[in-house]
Prior knowledge:
By secondary structure, the chain is of the alpha/beta class. It has 10 helices and 14 strands.
Amino acid sequence: MVTPLTGPLAMYGRVAGEATRLWTEELAESESVVLTLHDAHPDPVSAVRRAEASRPDVLFGPYGRGPALAVARATSRLVWNGGGATARLAAPEFENVVNIPAPAASYFRGGLAAIRDVDATVGSVVVVHSGKGFSGEVARGAVSAAEQTGVTCAEVLFRPGHGGESLSRVTGGDVLAMVGSFRDELEMARAVKRRRWRAVMSVAAGVDEVLEALGDRREGLLGPAQWTPGAAPRPDLGPDADWFVSAYHRRFGASPPYPAVQAVAAAVIWSECVRVAGTLDEGALLAQARRLDVRTLYGAFRIDPVTGLQVGHRVVTVQWQDGIRRVVWPPHRAEAPLRLIQRTWP
Length: 346
């Protein structure tokens, strides 16, 4: 596995590595599976070169959009992408990737659908974003989702590191959607005057620990979550959520964050492809992955046979309610109904 073990994404890259090691030791069908981790920071290309030198049977890709793109671009090996949630890793440019997570462009679709389901009079959204990389991809997806649901959409751009300042330039809108680095989103969440909008969405609100410093000020925030244990489906393949949460907690003394679950899902999918194909040949494994339609503890797995993008897995939308992240969308996985803000200042 090539993944960040140092640098700004280290926390997420390390838990992905820990989870994959847990899989090799407790779930892999062969007792002789050996996992080697290569640090993708600060140079993913050099890291994947080191990985290739050992001629591994499987190459698991890194957490993070940027490192995942760099690794996939630098190797002809098949990359099992458990950590790069981006539509950029699509064919024909990237024929050597098996995508596990839903693309970032889908992150705000569920939130907008949930809001409109509760109040169909909500008719406008303002998306505040940095316009680049991950932030731009999420924002473009939000604009597209708004247009498809008949909601007007305005955009406000900010320079990275100046997210909080950008809110002073926001006018109008029923819904505010914020996306940037987690540091920028924390700053924006501190600065936002909630009762200007019927709802406030933030990517960081979907990640348990990012806005922890806000305490009670997280209340009411909406966000996308790649995975939550309470809304995890019953899997066709691999361990269920209860087993994995318990095993991870016994080993590491904490609940598994979503990158850990994504990594295990990638390993489970790879293992199933090997089992069915009966070979380690990467061409055969890619063909098998494109035929799979299954569920792991992470959710549905089905990739588009033309683009190679994940179309089975869907992020859920969560809202902070009474100090707890609760799933509010989609309805069949909801743990609580959505609560809209009673706006007092237009």
